[in-house]
Amino acid sequence: MPCGQNFLIDKNVALKFTSLIPENYPVFEIGAGKGALTQYLLEKSRKVVVIEKDLFLVNFLKNRFATYKNFEVVEGDVLKFTPEFKEPFYIIGNLPYQISTEIIFWLAKVKNFIQAFLSFQKETAERFLSKEGSPLYGRTSLTVGVFFKAEKLFDISRTCFKPSPKISSTVVSFKRKNVDIDVEKWREFLNLCFFSKRKILISNLKKAGFDAENFFKQNNLPKNLRPHQASPEIFLKLFDMIKR
Questions:
Q1: Which among 19, 58, 94, 178 could disulfide-bond with 75, CB atoms 3.0 to 4.6 Å apart, if both were Cys?
Q2: Sign of CA dihedral 145, 149, 153, 157
Q3: CATH number, domain at 194?
Q4: Residue 1 maps to a domain
C-alpha cells in the first residue's frame, strides 16, 4: 500500500467535484489515487485518461475499472507528460502538496484544455490566488494571473480524506487566457525579477544586466517598486521589453 498519500473518501465531495465537468467530454485526471473521482468521471465522460505515478495504484486502477472501455491509465510523472487529445478536454485532479507549484507551470504549457479543476492545500490555494501587494504574492501567483483566469470554487474539509491531512483543501478553477508565452523563458524572467524579493524591482533588473530606467519612466512607475507590488500587466510589459 502506498504511503504519504491522502485519499478522498467522501462520496458527496467526489460528486460535487466531478459535477464541474460537463458530460461527454474527454478528461485528463492527475493522480487518481484509488479512483474516488474516476468512477464518476467514467459515467459521464467520453474518455478518461488518468496519470498515476505509484505502480501499486496503477495496477489497482486497472483492476477496478477493467470493464470500462473509455478508461486509460498511464504510469508516470505528470510533470514529464503532455496529455494528447484530438479535441478540447478538461483537466481534474486532487494534487499532492509536493507538485503544487510545478503543476502551475506545467499547466501553462498545456494548450488545448478547456478548463482545469484542481485541489490544493488551502494555504497553497490562497497563495496562488493572491494579488499584487499581498505578502503571499510571488512567482507562482503572478504566473497564475498572467496565464489564467483563476477562481476559488469551494473548500474540502480535511476529514474528507484518509488519512486526514493537517490542512483542508480548496478547489480552484483555471481558464487559460489568450497569451502566447514561452513558459521556460517566462520562468527565467521571473528569476531575474524576483532575484531578491526584498529589493526593489529595478535593482534586480540592473543586477541582471537590464537598464529599466526608461521603462519605469514611460509607464509612470515608482522607482522603489518591489516585485510583489507589481501587477501581472506590468510584468507582461516588462517581459515583452526584455524579450525584444
A1: 58
A2: negative
A3: 1.10.8.100
A4: no
185: left (phi over 0), alpha (psi -120 to 50) or beta: alpha
CA distance 78 to 155: 24
pLDDT (tens digit per residue) in 96-141: 888 999 999 999 999 899 999 999 999 999 999 999 999 999 999 9
235, 193 Cβ separation under 8 angstroms = yes
Same-domain status, 144 and 211: no
pTM across the whole model: 0.94
Condensed to tens digits (0 to 9), the pLDDT of residues 167-208 reads 999 999 999 999 989 999 999 999 989 887 678 999 988 888
Residues with Cβ within 8 Å of residue 239, at least 6 apart in sequence: 181, 186, 189
How is residue 185 written as a grid cell?
523563458
Of the three residues 127, 148, 176, the one that is the final residue of a domain is 176
Distance, in Å, from the CA atom of 147 to the CA atom of 244, rounded to the nearest integer, reads 20
Domain count along the chain: 2
- Prior bond to 163 cis, omega within 30? yes
Extended beta strands in 101-168, E state:
113-121, 148-156, 161-162
CA dist list (Å): 229 to 115, 144, 164, 170, 204? 28, 15, 36, 25, 14
Q: Identify whether residues 89 and 190 lie together within a single domain.
A: no
Residue ranges making up the domain that contains 189: 183-243
Task: Please state, in angstroms and rounded to a whole number, the distance separating the CA atoms of residues 239 and 215.
Answer: 11
CATH number, position 75 = 3.40.50.150
